Amino acid sequence: MAQPLQAQVKNRILAALPALEFEMLARNLVHIDLALGETLHRAGDRIEQVYFVESGFISALAVLSDGSPLEIGLIGAEGVAGVSIVLGATTSFSETMCQTGGGAYRLPAVALKAAVAHAPHLRDLLLRYVYVFGVQVAQTAACNAHHELGQRLARWLLAAHDRSGVAELSLTQDLIAIMLGVRRSTVSVAASTLQRAGVIRYQHGRITIIDRVGLENAACECYETVAGEYRNLFGEGPPHIAPAEVVAD
Amino acid sequence: MAQPLQAQVKNRILAALPALEFEMLARNLVHIDLALGETLHRAGDRIEQVYFVESGFISALAVLSDGSPLEIGLIGAEGVAGVSIVLGATTSFSETMCQTGGGAYRLPAVALKAAVAHAPHLRDLLLRYVYVFGVQVAQTAACNAHHELGQRLARWLLAAHDRSGVAELSLTQDLIAIMLGVRRSTVSVAASTLQRAGVIRYQHGRITIIDRVGLENAACECYETVAGEYRNLFGEGPPHIAPAEVVAD
DNA sequence: GCCTAAGTGTACGGTACCGCACACTTGTTT
DNA sequence: AAACAAGTGTGCGGTACCGTACACTTAGGC
User: Fold this and answer.
1) d(CA B210, CA B206)
2) Widest CA span of chain B, in angstroms?
3) B65 to chain A: which residues are within 8 Å by CB?
4) How confident is the model at residue B141 (pLDDT cuts 50, 70, 90)?
5) Cα–Cα distance between B88 and A134 in angstroms, integer?
6) Does residue B248 surpass a pLDDT of 80?
7) What local confidence, expressed as pLDDT, does residue A246 receive?
8) Cα B183 to Cα A146: distance, rounded to the nearest angstrom
9) CB atoms within 10 A of CB B171
10) Is residue B49 over pLDDT 60?
């Protein structure tokens, strides 16, 4: 398991670091494959490792005492799972799990904490990421209270599309329903509406985004609000980015 | 307007600082009175000042594009409004406004940024506060999706009670309805249920908490989850703190 | 090809809250 | 004391989603 070359790293935080700071981490970065459904952090457990996502995306979930999880944010190649250790947290409030299969660079939490103390660019980037992720969570709170499932579903699909970079996602309605905190049958109705409108297509755990613009029109404002914050994270992007390149909502 | 003496400061972050670090801020701290309904930061505006709350409490609101606000978090004497500048943000995502009347120490954002660079305890405390506030927001997202208004109302009243430290609050059902993102008439029903149960009493914009334990029983788990995080913020408190002393959810 | 599990469509009574309206009560102003 | 604004209780049709159940379709293993 050789050290990664920064030029080959897809994670945008790692890629944006000055070479010197990247080298501080590189020794401890281990590339791992993420299986579909794999849990990275369990709610309440110590954060031993952090994960710089390379491909696929990760859900951060709040787990209520009755055991029902609910998604509070998505993490893709723009981010890190377990980043709250840079705020001084030692345990994980949320559960983080991979929804798609993918890859990530794993780094011991202690290594990140140590590096942050001597790598100002890394620290600033991570703190800015914390901020943007916080915006995502806050917008989700408002969205959950105010917007209908059809809009929320469209928003979520867009976010998943942005992060995974692929138009065909392996996702069951069952899973989506858990993420959004609604019945599976409710998702079924909303999804078939989107399908009839021709913006998505799906069969048996495979959702394909056909008409991205149509999906954006079907989504609530929350998508664009959060997407704008993410665009600012790594400096201004072009006004319109190809879907697979976008890092958004 | 003399410099504040640290011993007299009620804000828990300022009070917890080493004397040396407090002195770095003291020159620029200005005590101000917060009027009921006063807005401290407007969504999207630059953060020019931050506010270390001394008394009363402040709501952080997400404002949707249709103009409807929704509360994402409460800030009391345990916290700071505008703290996201320590994450590198320059503008405010949320709107912050005072719900109660109260007081705060105002500090120019640039002064805080400058101090943070040379005051490690201040920086660590602020980052930990950011973390706990984030937990509050995340729990609110889940709560909005899953819990009924009766529970959410009880949770909110407990949080307001903790932060203000007084059992009698000047709050109309109208205001609460906006915070919780529901109709005023829905609050009316839930509130009168709590009143009939004898846990609160209210008339004409004045709510009194009579039975705190009863209120805790009526609230969802979200109260206690977040309260626990806040207890950890300044080190472990005693297992049971007198209501007026609690800094919670 | 057949069997089974996984995934999806649909139905149906029930409930929480919406959206709106209006009457009533309380405190304040003059 | 009268007038008024602010705050609250209540009603009522409408809707989104719950909770649950069941039938149907598709993919994959044998």
Assistant:
1) 13
2) 54
3) 221, 225
4) very high
5) 13
6) no
7) 55
8) 12
9) 20
10) yes
pLDDT computed for residue A141 by the predictor:
98
Residue whose entry in the numeric block shows the structure tokens 């307007």 = B1
For A145, the closest of B65, B89, B181 (CB atoms) is B181
Nearest 5°: CA angle at A137, between A241 and A48? 100
Q: Distances from the Cα of B117 to the Cαs of A130, A183, B86, B132, B175, in angstroms?
A: 18, 48, 10, 21, 39
Using 50 as the pLDDT threshold, list the residues of chain A that sit under it: 237-244
Put the strands of the sheet holding A58-63 in their side by side order. A39-41, A95-98, A58-63, A69-75
A159 to each of A211, B65, B95, B120, B171, how far by Cα in Å? 14, 19, 25, 36, 38
Contact A213, A239 (CB under 8 A): no
Which residue has 């031993």 as its token pair? A48
Q: How far apart are the first and last CA of chain B?
A: 33
DSSP letter string over A19-32?
HHHHHHHHTT-EEE
Q: What are the helix (H) ranges across chain A?
A: 12-16, 19-26, 109-118, 120-146, 149-164, 173-180, 184-196, 212-218, 221-233
The Cα–Cα gap between A26 and B93 comes to 34
Cβ-proximal residues to B84 (8 Å cutoff; 6+ apart), any chain: A131, A134, B47, B92, B93, B130
**From the CA atom positions of chain A, what is the Rg in Å?**
18
- The pLDDT assigned to A234 comes to 83
In chain B, residues with a C-beta closer than 8 Å to the C-beta of A84 are 131, 134
Question: For A73-85, how does the pLDDT look when each residue is reduced to its tens digit (9 = 90+)?
Answer: 999 999 999 999 9
Please compute the mean of the pLDDT values over residues B193-214 and round it to a whole number: 95
CA–CA distance, B248 with A245 (Å, rounded to integer): 42
Is-contact B30 B106, C-beta < 8 A? yes
Helix axes A19-26 and A120-146, enclosed angle (nearest 10): 80
For B81, list phi and psi in degrees, rounded to 5.
Answer: -95, 125
CB atoms A68 and B146 under 8 Å:
yes
Residues in chain A within 8 Å Cβ distance of B138: 60, 62, 72-73, 93-94, 137, 141
What pLDDT is recorded for position B168? 92
pTM above 0.85, yes or no: yes
Hey, are the CB atoms on B138 and A62 less than 8 Å from each other?
A: yes
The dihedrals phi and psi of B221, each to the nearest 5 degrees, come to -55, -25
pLDDT at B238: 43
